[in-house]
Amino acid sequence: MSISIGSILDAFKTGAGPSSSHSIGPQRAARFFLARSKQQPARFRVTLYGSLAETGRGHLTDQTIAQALAPTDCEIAWDTQTDNLKHPCTMKFEAFYSDGSAPTVWTVYSVGGGNLEDDAGPIGNPEPATYPFLHIGEAIRWCEENRLSFWQLAERHESQLWPRLGAVWDTMRDSVARGLKSKQVFLPGTLGLPRRAPLTWQRAQQLQSPQRDLASLSAFALAVAEENANGGAIVTAPTCGSAGVLPGLLYYYETVKEVPRQKILQALATAGLFGAAIKANATVSGAEGGCQAEIGSASSMAAAAGSQILGGSLRQIEYAAEIGMEHHLGLTCDPVEGYVQIPCIERNMMACLRAFECAAFSVLTDGQHLVSFDDVIDVMYTTGHDLQSAYRETARGGLALLWRKRMTRPPPVSS
User: Fold this and answer.
1) Which end of the chain has fewer CB within 10 Å, C or N?
2) Are 169 and 261 contained in the same domain?
3) Are residues 88 and 183 in the same domain?
4) H-helix or E-strand spanning residue 94
5) Which of 75, 98, 123 finishes a domain?
6) What is the DSSP letter of 392?
């Protein structure tokens, strides 16, 4: 276990959807493997195990890897066995050479949020920030002793924080705007799922608040989630599958409530701090912890950001983040046909609305509560490991199983 949280920027990776663990992570792994090959390979073979094999086709994992290794021929092998895997998203890369020399072999794990590890530790992460704590409870005490807010704490410990967060926010904003303006009728894949963000946004304009506010939040979160499902450029927050929650909330505050950009970036920094604590102490991988690790984490991060924008104290912000996770505990990851569409897109919308409510409620309290954010993150991690593998991004249980049964059911006999 770490002795400090990592950089808050580690929660915000820019890349193409639809999945941070199943597309961004494998893409990064392929590029790292290509760079470490001792000579130009004649061909590659990549074996995908566990969750990557179960849902990789719907997540475009094979296409992403092949594109990263192109133009060299790449064979993709699928192995759904989960016994004795160190991580449910395991990949084995092999490079073969025309001179007959021994192949280069590398086993690597996509651990969530686009992050990678091998048996030696993290791969390709930026220089870690050196925070003097591992848990949010410790961060609160440190901030109180030094009279700092969460975002000021991040400012002290991250180099070039505001330009870097500015670039993150610009990409987030762009993904919302693209999703709202998209003329695409149906998302790619066999489900034939229609885009809903543009029409939701249009109809929101005809409403009066508070219905208009809730409809706007819904449209903004849907816009990013649909862009992600379409393979568009998004920012993990902390994953691709949950990428619509935080941008949806912050876009609402900036465009509807006219919150200044700098306050948006400060809220983004606070969200990143909570995301970094989750990554350091638990997981954001749906394959490891279920959807609670993705959508629950995103809702926590967004709730913390929203509470800060509303003027929340350190303890009110922490309370908002705790509520955001507590009421997602046990949420399963059961993508229909392996696509990041059903139930993923609507979950982004619902988690954004919940984060909005968590933030609003937190500032009505004194911030005191019995279950801490750190406690609920420990529970989330334990709960994730207790979930059957069918409910951890394998598409073998829940809604995914229901859909498969429906598709294989014989048609009714006409009378």
Assistant:
1) C
2) yes
3) no
4) strand 90-96
5) 123
6) B
One-letter amino acid of 148: L
CA gap 89, 111 in Å, rounded: 7
Confirm whether 131 is domain-assigned.
Answer: no
Q: What's the total number of domains in the chain?
A: 2
383/331 Cα distance (integer angstroms): 9
Element (H, E) at 125: none
Q: Report d(CA 227, CA 178) in Å as an integer.
A: 8
94: left (phi over 0), alpha (psi -120 to 50) or beta: beta
Distances (CA, A) of 391 to 94, 298, 397, 402: 30, 19, 6, 13
Q: What is the rounded CA–CA span in Å between residue 269 and residue 87?
A: 29
Q: Quick count: other Cβ atoms within 10 Å of Cβ 210?
A: 8
31: number of Cβ within 10 Å = 14
Contact 329, 380 (CB under 8 A): yes
Q: What is the pLDDT of residues 327-381, one digit of tens each?
A: 999 999 999 998 999 999 999 999 999 999 999 999 999 999 999 999 999 999 9
* pLDDT tens digits along 93-116: 999 999 888 999 999 999 988 889
CA atoms within 13 A on the CB side of 76: 21
Residue in 192, 188, 228 with CA at minimum distance from that of residue 18: 228
Q: What angle do CA 30, 34, 39 make, to 5 degrees?
A: 160
d(CA 318, CA 202) in angstroms, rounded, equals 35
Partners of 123 in the β-ladder: 116
Domain that holds residue 92: 19-123
Average the pLDDT over 57-86 and give the result: 89
C-alpha dihedral, 348 to 58 to 117 to 96, nearest 10°:
-160
Residues 68 and 176 in one domain: no
pTM of the model: 0.89
